[in-house]
TrEMBL record:
Keywords: Methyltransferase, S-adenosyl-L-methionine, Transferase. It comes from the Eukaryota. CDD domains: AdoMet_MTases (cd02440). InterPro entries: COMT-like (IPR016461), COMT_C (IPR001077), SAM-dependent_MTases_sf (IPR029063). GO terms for molecular function: O-methyltransferase activity. Residues 222-403 form the O-methyltransferase C-terminal domain. This is O-methyltransferase C-terminal domain-containing protein. GO terms for biological process: methylation. Pfam families: Methyltransf_2.
Amino acid sequence: MNQPDLTLESLAARVLNLTTVLTTALQERNSPQPSFSQDAPDFLSPAPEVQGPRLQLIETLTKMLHLATGPTEYLLHQCLLPNADGLIVDFLNRFDIWHLVPLNGSASYADIATAIQLPEVTETPGSDRIIHSAASAYVARDAARSAFIGHCMEDVRPAAAVGVDALQKFYLGLKEHSEEQEHCPTYLASDRGKVRGTSYWEFAETYEEPGKPKGYRAERFALAMKALSQTQLTAQVLDKFDWESLGDATVVDVGGSTGHISLLLAKAHPRLKMIVQDFPEVETSFNEAIASSEYASRISFHAYNFFEPQTLTANAYLFKSIFHDWSDKYVVQILRNLLPVLKSGVHIIIFDNIIPPDHDEHGKPVVPLPTRRLLGAVDLQMFVNHNSKERKASDWTEVVKRADSRFELMGFYTVVGSPMGIVDVVFNT
Ligand SMILES: C[S@@+](CC[C@H](N)C(=O)[O-])C[C@H]1O[C@@H](n2cnc3c(N)ncnc32)[C@H](O)[C@@H]1O
């Protein structure tokens, strides 16, 4: 589509304007301005007055970069840079370079080469000493962030590399999208020369490698989920549901991993009792994360496979980032497994990505480009790992109703700056 208003000059003017709006909004909240220094804020304020212009600024800068790059170089960059970027991030993370450079200090290339037992690269650009930037210091400060990188680089990247192979092998000639889990690229991916041939969950639990404990990938994944929930305005989205309206209530956090979402809820709502359900293997990590917390008496663990009928009665069942891992036919099974314990009025709270409509009725984009790109990437990651997808509001309605007509959709709640939202469903007999 020809867009004559998108010139370098008009975009630059918009960048200037948005920068002023953003920095003023931060000043008004006494929030620090973003910087490259290692003590820069990890996140900017969640206020919509900050997040709105921030996302528009990223969108405008992306378009400017695109224009300045030009079509020939753009395609060249698209082919070369993602491979190089992935390789570099994987290297930094696997060799834990984050901790070989001291915070508030520096390290030489020679120091690092000695520590990781690799030959030193002789041609180093600029200074031979390395210091942390805001981004690397952010990883060095919290193991969960490095776990998220490890999951993306070591679990997902080998599968993404055979994504088109999976399309050719499993999809050629099909008229409709397959709902089968075993048609995802993960089944074709290889690690250390061995083809996985199994679901992501089984692979993560059973994968073995010299020098690493069995199941380390599953433990790392749980930690990665914690890192993810530190972004995406998780607490703000969680707040969109009126938890106090449940009164003295029991909430089952189905597939709740090590309990980090239950912890947030227990902290914010003293009348809630949380029960985290997940695979039995997760219990040890759950205990490590929750047992020493002052809220431990209100958060317990219950080993449960959500492909079996639910046995716990509760006032609400929370599914946080569960259903986007499963295609519709499995979501229907998981929801139907609640039926034996559901009474009228019980809430099923789905906390997941909600893909917004791309355009309004006038064809104007309604969602900032960075959010659309992120959702597109997560959607592809779900295909790669599980042959599942991210869902629009209409997809959520369809799959919930397909499970049982007594499930009533009460509302969709989102916040500016997060791709996630809450789908509130009530069981009505
Ligand atoms: C994407 S993670 C989400 C974890 C957590 N709710 C969060 O938002 O951080 C999916 C979780 O579902 C769990 N899970 C996968 N299959 C399961 C099953 N059949 N029964 C119970 N839990 C399962 C995994 O162990 C994992 O903790």
